[in-house]
Fold these 3 entries.
Entry 1:
Amino acid sequence: MVDDFRHVRFCAWNGMIFMAVFILFWGVMGHNIPPWAGDLPAKVVADWFRAEQNIIRTGMVISMTFTVCYCVWGLAIGKVMRHVTGPHSILLELQIWGAGLTVVPVLVSNSFWLAGAYRPEALPDETLQMLYDLAWLLIDLGYSVTSVQMIALGVGFLQDKREQPLMPKWVCWYSIWVGFMFTAECLMPFFKTGPFARQGILNYWIEFSIFFIYAPIITWYILKAIPRLEREVADAGARA
Amino acid sequence: MQAQGLKRAGLPGDPGLWVFILADMTAFALFFLLFTLGRMGDPALFEQSRLALDPAFGIANTLILLTSSWMMVQAVEAVRTGSRRRALLFLVLTIGIGLGFAVTKIVEYAGKIQAGITMLTNDFFMYYFAFTGIHFLHFVIGIGALLVTLAKARSAPMDDGMRRWTESVGCYWHMVDLLWIMLFPMLYLQRLS
Amino acid sequence: MSAAVRHLAATGPWALLVIATLASGWLTHDLTDGRWSTALVILIASFKIRLVVVHFMEVTWGPRAWRLALEIWVLLATAIILAGYLLPSP
């Protein structure tokens, strides 16, 4: 297969850019590591919006700008995956669309946090609480678009017939597993305390951790795959 | 014909699947821990709630899954020896018996909900519904995989690929079984002395 | 080993599993002391899981690391539940 790998490395690095920005600007500045507990009074969340509005604004502005990096990353993965599944597999599109659509809940939920920080002094406590709740409900329950990406990625790369697969089998299975594990987020809206709440050990700490481990691992193997594929394509061209 | 009884070099099934299985089992070990901590925090409430459960359902479910697993072992063996008819028979038995689990589960859940007990009732029932629910999801996925296996067994060649696929699905199904083996006494049988 | 003998090889463990399950059910009757019968029930569950791992999943034939990982899992799961049950509440 003929192909063009220019800029693909940069696109692959976008995954790490997304993670780094997300952790610092959404996580730290946005007070999302962990989030405010679901059972706190509205006043706590409201006072936070009022006291930290500029930090929140800055955090969300940068986070929103760089959210698209997740989609760019997905496209880089797709470029490599083409050489495993072949160019006609629907798994390619499922992975790319999954990555692209993941941008939506992240981007939109960030805008709710941003809205809360825009004129908090003029809004009642309950309204600010609702904006915060809205953001978390969206970012958590938008999980299935990311699951589609992760499962398609895993299933696709499992088809690799190379002696040394581009993506090790255990990574493929881990990807599929994380995609399924996300379904536990369905319990989140029913609880404001305990392990299933948005700040809970399962629905926050475990779910977000298994995701945050996932991205660097995939990025690592994608970056390693690119030079291998460049050689494969060059060899095939030389033989032709 | 595949040689029976010879030791194979590796684990049955796809090696990567074991990562999935171990990860899933780790998740359930965490669930066991969460439940245990919850129970230690309020043993009286947990005992009172536990008494609302009927162990007969739990025992029935255990026996159903054990028997279904046993059928699956035969199905895997049939694929290994290339016997298509036997494979089909045992797969049908695996699925048929396994579906009994769904029946009892639905009856049990329906009974609880009609009695006004949901996962929001208290911490015990939160864990009960969440963990048996997540387990049930695993069960449903397993039935799906078994149905795919059945379809493959009807027409696909009984080759190495088919063997590996069937072994993999078998291992996943046994995992569903063994998780329930621990869930059952943990939720239903821990008596306050 | 013929197919028939292998068939029997799984039947033995299955029968044992069924008996162990029924025994667990019996042990929960009020006739027995709650504390020790519950502990026994948990240990029986542990034993049953090992039967499934060894005889159904056939993990004996795999690399040692996986066998070890699964054994450790059974140990941990049992220890967590048993310890939680036997330790006095805070």
Note: The mean pLDDT of chain A is 96.
Entry 2:
Amino acid sequence: MGLLNRLRPEFWNGAAEGGPYRSLFNYRRLWRLSVVLLAAVCLTPLCIMTVIDFGVTKRALTQENLHRTTITTTNTRRTLSYFLDERLAALNFAARSEVYDSLAKPERLASLLKDLKAAFGGFMDLGVIDASGRQIAYVGPYDLLGIDYSSQEWFKSTVDAGHFISDVYLGFRNVPHMVISVRADLPDGGFFVLRAAVDTQRINDILANLDLSGSGDAFLVNHDGVLQTVSRSHGSVFERLSLPVPPHADRSEVYESATAEGGLIIGYAYIERTPLILMVVKRQAELMKPWYAMRLDLVGFLGVSICIILVVILGVATYMVEKIFVADQTRAKTLQQMEHTNRMATIGRLAAGVAHEINNPLAIINEKAGLVKDLVLYGQEMPTPERLSALVDSILASVERAGTITKRLLTFARHQDVHIEPVSLAKAAEEVLSFLTKEAEYRRIQVDVEAATDLPSVESDRGKLQQILLNLVNNAFQAMDDGGHLILRVFTPSPETVAVSVADNGCGIPAADVKRIFEPFFSTKKKKGGTGLGLSITYGLVQELGGTLTVESELGHGATFTVTFPLVKGETGEHSVRG
Amino acid sequence: MNILFVDDESELVSALAERLNLRGIKADYATDGETAAEKVRANAYDLAVLDMKMPGLSGLDLKKKLQRLRPGMRFIFMTGHGSEEDFRAGSSEAAGYLVKPVRIEDLLAAINQALAAGQG
């Protein structure tokens, strides 16, 4: 908490000084707003760009993986097709080049098998089957001579199509193998079938030697989904594949599949003329590893960037708001001082007027007392008691007159501290006007006060109220030529408010200036020594007392300033008068 | 020596006139411009003591008016205000300028000085 308090900027707890002028802004709100806006402006594009980049890279990498899987699948299919086609072609060539009778001889057949093994490899045995389906010759590790294949599917297919490649099966020998057979026609219109068993080990080797990234797996399945070769993670030979059998396609296809262990990229191809389907399966998680690493970097970079940006934003926002706060504080203090200066100037101005007013009764006292002395010194006879009494009465009356004036000034000057009490606006107006009666008299300014008798009092500060009214009346006096007319009205515009209006028939305010007259340092009397602060201070004072100050004016026809104060609810004289 | 006091404070000017009378100086008073003008027309005053501020009429205006009626007349201004403007106007426009309240000796001295300057 201690650190937090030390970090907390000065503006956080608002202004301590500056009186009524302190709350120009809500600094916490300003600070929060700046931080949120700056953060939104800076971080949103950054995050959006990161997300876009994230997606683009991921898509590119996925596409790349799909593409590579397609290429692998195509190449492997080609290799496997070639492997099987080659053996089919070799068998075809043997069947056509050899005479049926010679093939039926075991020695010739054995020599052919030896040649095929040497030239191509993968051949396990060789058999010749006549048109009735009986094996009439056989060379190989098993005793299969004389077996009748006429009911076997492969035999029928070979007879119909001219050739046949089987899927992988165990057969009589209990070793995974596949059968390739061709039909050869005889000159007499008959035919025979040359049949070879091919070891699937070679195919397993081809598939095992594939360079597959990402825990890749390549294997063959038949159209029923039974595994034909060894697979690394999808079961062993003759087990049923856990993945669905892909639909038939003429070309290599690739698709993405989601499983319980994660996403898979599956490439497949139907191998022509065989019941085999090549499948290449790769794990997406493995393939995406580089991307995951990059993703971590990206997120890390984003996090660090966001942290730095936030720190900078917080710093900048705090610095700026603090600067505004300090400037505002200075302004508030200056205005407060100005208000005080204005009050002092008002009192000074009043004092000058009051001095004049006091000097008159003083002069009378002076002359009356002097006359008494003169009557005694230079008079032919002693003055009568009646004469002396009249002179002394006159002196006493003048003393009283002077006393009234000084007391009035004191009531104005005394109210320095804010002291809220019920104040009668009409009475305050009369007090203020009493300062100016002499000036009004000299300048032949007619002053009328219109106030209803049953006006409610407002809870306010008498001193500030007097200052407001004095400023307004003084302003009106300055706006008028000699012989003007000032009307001061106290009225209730609505049941909740009470207002004082000061209307003069002076020079008025140009429409362009009306909006600006309450601004500090705006003055139309600068050449005559106006500071441009009177009305702005008056405005500040009215605000401080919770009221509003409005002006209506017509150039050349005078101006009316109206101060409106709200009546405090439930005001029934509960508040005692303390001043 | 014949002197006229003009001020809206009748108690002041009446007492001043009486005090001068007691000293053997002929003095009269008026409390507004109209009466002052009438008196100036009727009597040959040597000097007038004018208040600078009277309701509806300034001492300077009254001085001009009275001077037209009797060009040889001297003037002394008397003011309760003592402002810079009054002082400047009073010093340049009249033979004397006094701030209320005035000691009778000062007033007499000012009157004598003004009249002496006028004769010389």
Note: Residues 104-119 of chain B form the longest helix (16 residues).
Entry 3:
Amino acid sequence: MNILVFTKRVPATQEEEIRVIDDGKKVDLSKVPFKLNDWDNYAVEEAVRIAEKAGGSVAAVSMGDAESDEVLRRAIAMGASDGFLIEAATERQDPNGRATLALNFLRKQALPFDAIFTGVQAEDDQFGSMGGILAAKLGLPFASMVIGIDTFEKDHVIVRRELEGGLQERVKVSLPCVLAIQSGINEPRYVSIMGIRKASKVERKVFKAADFQEGAENMIEVERWTYPPTRGGATMIQGDADNICKELLGILKEKGVFQ
Amino acid sequence: MSHALIIAEVRRGQFEERNLDSIGFCSLLGKQAVLLAPAGEYAIGEKSVDTVVRVAAEESLFLNPLNMITIIGKEFETRGKPDVIVFTSSSSGSELAAYTAGHFNLPIITDVSGLDKERSIFYKSYYSDKIFGEFRPAAGGPFVVTVRSGSFKEHAVEKPAAAGVETMEGLAFAGGRAFMEYVEEEKGEIDITKADFLLSVGRGIGSKDEIPAYEALAEGLKAVISGSRPVIDKQWLPKARQVGTSGKTVKPKVYLAMAISGAFQHIAGMKDSDCIIAVNKNAEAPIFQHAHYGIVGDANKLRDKLREILKG
């Protein structure tokens, strides 16, 4: 089975404070570290596991600036045999634009594949749409929120989709297909610095996004960046560590959950 | 008259409550609402939309993206194209929305939690809910949205007349994907929804090695330990302890959130707790917007201090 995995290099903003600058025209990410999108990490791992079991190969594709090569090196260190960078100067916010770029790339390069994996969503834009749009444009079956791949046969896969509140559904999907992989589907392997160094000896092919732009114009635009509405917020407990703990325990006693 | 097309989410015979957010979104936009709904016996509250189209496909066929494009294609043929196609922001809603946008080549904005009608702006969260983008379709014509659960339901008001009911039949689906069965998650060793006091930890604690000390603190406080999605995904805690949309929805007397920044999917699972206390090193963390009490600081240090005090 040959699997293409679309990966994205994203800012790791979960534990960072981020600011809107330039009158709402920009979000300042200059102090934020970047990394492989969490969901894509699971997608690469899942693809590599299938290739290890059933044979075939995994290639990672990334769209972004030159530094996105970093996520390709990581994917290769995890077990992918190829890395393709579609280099673009500016970041695209529109999932339609990204999907069309991917579509044109796949058609022009005529890369063979049995399945395309993406992460369910990228941590930065949380659109969760690129895989589904690409599948529809390719005219291929699609399943998202894939939390388990039960069987992987020559002409179909049987996957479990995560629904809400602990419920899943099992669906049969014909190959070739596009699957959007949910976080938690596996335990991604550890990648050492040595491993990444070794991976960087594998040649990655670089393409220019400008060659695949046909029909990839943005269909949505961002007027401005802003902060979410505030809702009154919490009463802040302040002071030194002893005071904070005392007050916290006081609240727990008052609420009757701690004696 | 311009109209909005709403795709109903019906799951195991239940008209999901989050459909009200889709309906409220259309009311707020001031659009005639046409609801596409699968076959089956369930109540819709038919006064809240203008037209209900009962599609001759049961829910497992209806919630299949490959079939949905056939259904929507037929709707386009009979009624014409709508201004907007509205899906729920759920596992299936998001899947259907992306496939529909791709197939019909339509703009898509997902996870919309607010709108400014005058400026034709739709608010979408970015960076784990820390930033909102003000989005709009670049050109006229139909576009696709998914709406965040809980964001618009209060606008889903009853209309004076009951909805007109139509049917859609004679659909031929192409195949390529087939529903097999529902799978219930295994019962865990504990039911966190029964706990009065939850001590919940997030990825901000840093590593799995920190868990035993949190378990010791929970024991000292007689709290039950739970966690946010990343902690479960990384297998620091078992799945039965997950709080959030894909885990458990909890309403304890006290919810003590340590090093959880507060992504929407987590908030949705704990926002109705009687008392929420949040500890996070980032004063701007979204969780403080939903907490009753907040502490800005290192959760691991606070944990150690509390353990010290409890040891007395």
Note: Chain A touches chain B through 92 residues (CB under 8 Å).
